[in-house]
Amino acid sequence: MTDQQQQPAVPTRNGMPVLGLGTWENDDPAQCTESVANALDAGYRHVDTAQIYGNEAAVGEGIARSDVDRGDIFLATKVWIDELSPADVASSTRESLEKLGVNAVDLLYVHWPAGEYEPGETLPAFAELRDDGLIDRIGVSNFEPEHLDAATDALGEAPFANQVEMHPLLRQEELREYADANGVELVAYSPLARGEILDDPAIVDIAEKHGVSAAQVSLAWLRETGVTAIPKATGIDHIRDNLASVDLDLDDEDVEAIDALGRTDRQLNPDFGPDW
Predict the structure, then answer these.
(1) Does the active-site annotation cover 117?
(2) Domain ranges of the chain
(3) Strands across the sheet with 21-22, in order?
(4) 136, 157 contact by CB (below 8 A)
(5) Which residues pair with 188 in a beta bridge?
(6) How far is the C-alpha of 37 from the C-alpha of 186, rounded, in Å?
(7) In the CATH hierarchy, which top-level class contains the domain 12-194+226-248?
(8) Is the dihedral of CA 121, 228, 76, 230 positive or negative?
(9) pTM of this structure
(10) How far does CA 18 lie from the centroid of its chain?
């Protein structure tokens, strides 16, 4: 059996692979390029970056270096808060595409509802980029229900996705209910709670029960909850371990144990963010 045949197949939902490679804080260009290329060659088909990460060029180099065709990759980036006026949305997105070395991205997010963000001005600029074929889908990030309502009013449709911090220690029940009711995909960043879940006794118990890593348990729980996860990984071992989560099926007892944790351990809460 070849390595390609052994790779887990990542399922998709509405055209988006439900496991992707996050690149936040992967700011060493050589390492970022290598991790993106390695992830794609291992079987990932979803890569997430952002203007503020400062690594779009390295991500693009990783895509170019891999053996995977661009058309098979779901690529997402985000517009930073000081680039959200209509003119800046257009110019900064074109700069992002140039750095990434692509003609278009599959998903473009508003990174935060902050800074220059004005729903009635920012989101029509995103829609114009979509009309021009520079982006395929419009997303938002770190939005609460009231922000999503305003975005929907401005677009005349719900955003495709809302990327938020989510993991077993921050289960985001309200946003999950909103997403289900309004047809919005949830994408989880920091899906391992920046390593906190790796030492949680309940998660560790479930991992030992299945003979897998705690990281795989967290990622499998997100997938089975209907959420796409984009864990950061740089080394090939972690890249492969996270990918193996798509083959892990949690049972009802596992899910109940995770849902019973009752913790709200938010890892990221900048001053300019929403009033959670």
Answers:
(1) no
(2) 12-194+226-248
(3) 21-22, 46-48, 74-79, 107-110, 138-141, 161-165, 185-189, 227-229
(4) no
(5) 164, 229
(6) 25
(7) alpha beta
(8) positive
(9) 0.95
(10) 9
Q: Active site residue: 53, 109, 178, 189, which one?
A: 53
Which tokens belong to 49?
A: 């970056």
Residues 175-211: tens digit of each pLDDT: 999 999 999 999 999 999 988 899 899 999 999 999 9
As a whole number of angstroms, the distance between CA 103 and CA 133 comes to 9
Cα(219)–Cα(21) distance, rounded to whole angstroms? 12
**Is it the case that residue 5 has pLDDT exceeding 80?**
no
Percent of the chain with pLDDT over 70: 98
Identify whether the C-beta of residue 123 lies closer than 8 Å to the C-beta of residue 147.
Answer: no
115 Cβ contact list (under 8 Å, min separation 6):
80, 81, 82, 84, 272
The first and second tokens of residue 231, run together, are 């864990």
Distances (CA, A) of 72 to 15, 106, 220, 238, 260: 11, 11, 23, 22, 38
* Alpha-carbon distance values, 39 to 16, 59, 168, 241, 247 (Å): 16, 11, 24, 11, 17
